[in-house]
Design goal:
With 161 residues, the chain is of the alpha+beta class. The protein has one domain. Helices cover 48% and strands 24% of the residues. It has five helices and five strands, in the order ααβββαββαα. Strand 2 and strand 3 form a beta hairpin. The chain is elongated, with a radius of gyration of 21 Å. The two termini are 41 Å apart.
Length: 161
């Protein structure tokens, strides 16, 4: 317990920030990896059951099914994404994936539940990954060199003001 009382505020932030960011960083890395690998995945035929509908939470409501070796699977995303920022992008997807449309589904050969309709596409994943890596690194920097963070903030404040 003595160790924690001897830590500065920035060192405490340096412990908390990487711990808080780690699960989200793991998810972003996994999505990025799947998108990268999906161009090499086997493909099968599928059908859109519930066409794309845009919800207020900036996420999609979507469902397609496909069969691999006689087993039926469901997918709920046309590609690996982080979020949707514009209605224009979503309106294009609504036109692209209406109810009942036959689609080509690319599925992960080691886990058939993981699939995509647009291999290699990773809208928003790169940006989220960079932001999360920055936050994780900033937390580690605050832990290992707490004075450095203060110096960097002071430097940028002098530039702005």
């Amino acid at each position: 317990m003595e160790y924690f009382t001897s830590l500065s505020e920035s060192q405490i932030v340096g412990i908390i920030l990487p711990l808080a960011v780690s699960p989200f960083l793991f998810i972003a890395i996994r999505r990025w990896w799947w998108a990268k690998q999906s161009v090499h995945w086997p493909k099968t035929k599928g059908i859109v059951i519930d066409g794309i509908k845009f919800r207020l939470s900036r996420s999609l409501n979507f469902l397609y099914t496909y069969d691999v070796n006689g087993v039926s699977y469901k997918g709920d995303k046309p590609f690996f994404y982080n979020s949707y920022k514009t209605v224009k992008k979503v309106s294009h997807l609504i036109e692209l994936y209406p109810d009942g449309k036959q689609v080509v589904v690319y599925y992960n050969p080691s886990n058939h539940k993981i699939s995509t309709l647009e291999p290699g596409r990773k809208d928003g994943v790169n940006g989220a990954l960079l932001l999360l890596l920055f936050l994780f690194s900033a937390g580690l920097m605050a832990l290992s060199a707490p004075g450095l963070i203060s110096e960097i903030i002071d430097y940028f404040l002098k530039l702005i003001l």
